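User: Predict the structure for this protein chain, please.
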Amino acid sequence: MTGPNDRYRFRLHRRNLPGRPDIVLPRYRTIVFVNGCLWHGHECRCGRMPSTHRQYWAEKIARNVARDQTNYQALLDSGWNVVVIWECDMAAGIDSLLSQLRRLKGRNNGRD
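Assistant: Here is the predicted structure, written as structure tokens:
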């Protein structure tokens, strides 16, 4: 259950930021990426490599991971907090994301 203190102003898919983040919380200088495990190289059962054209997929996913790291670092260097939510973690639902955001909100309380 969310209350009045759990509301967040956000923007979706900001093109002017590296990696075009899924969710941007400007007030908290926080970026949220919701990553598919396969496409972003997460080492879990959801991120299992396809059984055909393995070399193609290995190279493509390696490029995606390198690009992600470059984007995350650029955002961190610009003063943003970066949160990555993985597809396999979505089973925990929105509560997992809200828990992470509350922790960031607590750290940034002086900016409210």
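The helical segments are 54-77, 94-107.
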